[in-house]
Structures are given as C-alpha cells and as structure tokens.
C-alpha cells in the first residue's frame, strides 16, 4: 500500500494553501470576514454568520454551515459545491504580527487525488485574489 501525505486516516484527502502578506492579522481577518472578502473566498452572494451552525449558500450553489469561529484567528465550516455528493471541511487561519501575517486555507474530506488537485488550484487562485484585494485597500 502506498501512503501519500495528501491522505490521512483522520481526515481523508486534504489540501492546504498559505500565503504570508505584509499586513496585520487584524487587517487580514477583518477583510476575510467582511462582505468583499467573503465574496472572494466563500463565493458571491454568501452571508457569513457568526453563530455555530449558521448555514450559508452562495449564488453558485455552494452550501455549508459554520462549525467553529475564533475571532481574529480561525474559521471552520463545511463546504459543499452544488455538484458534489459529499461535504468537506474548510478551515481558514490567520496568524502573525502587526507587520506580517500568514493566511491559510486548509480543506479536508476531499473525494480523492483529482478533487484534491482541483481544490489546490482553486484555493491558490482564491489566495491570489485575496492578496490582490488587500493590496488595493
């Protein structure tokens, strides 16, 4: 049996994308949970709730619910595009200093290697768009 680092016993296939940016953690967090940021990473039309269990749906049919939220630090939610037959778990973390912050998107419970690579490309593009939008502020 071949073991791959992209698949774990505890959370299935997973992928992570991170980027360090020259902004404070507060700036990055506030952008991510604000309307513009949510539209970039979660999807257009989505309203992000604050309470555990709060559901969301994007204009393109992605659905899920908030599973955890630690203000200024971490957001955990289920994430299921309309053409998937399973939920995945998405975790976004923000950590750093007043001058430099690392933004991480980590997704678990993907269906397999192909879906993992699709999501790697997706979260890489999302990260680039978030970084570009932060630079314009």
From TrEMBL:
Xref: Gene3D superfamilies: 3.30.530.20
Pfam family, one: AHSA1
Domain (Activator of Hsp90 ATPase homologue 1/2-like C-terminal) ranges: 26-134
Family: Belongs to the AHA1 family.
Name of the protein in its database record: Activator of Hsp90 ATPase homologue 1/2-like C-terminal domain-containing protein
Organism: Amycolatopsis japonica
């Amino acid at each position: 049996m071949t073991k791959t680092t992209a698949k774990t016993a505890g959370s299935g296939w997973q992928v992570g994308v991170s980027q360090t940016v020259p902004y404070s953690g507060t700036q990055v967090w506030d952008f991510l949970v604000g309307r513009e940021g949510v539209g970039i990473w979660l999807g257009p039309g989505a309203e992000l709730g604050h309470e555990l269990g709060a559901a969301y749906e994007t204009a393109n049919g992605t659905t899920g619910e908030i599973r955890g939220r630690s203000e200024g630090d971490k957001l955990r939610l289920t994430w299921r595009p309309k053409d998937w037959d399973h939920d995945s778990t998405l975790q976004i973390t923000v950590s750093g200093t007043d001058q430099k912050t690392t933004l991480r998107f980590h997704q678990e419970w993907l269906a397999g290697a192909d879906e993992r690579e699709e999501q790697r490309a997706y979260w890489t593009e999302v990260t680039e768009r978030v970084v570009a939008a932060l630079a314009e502020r």
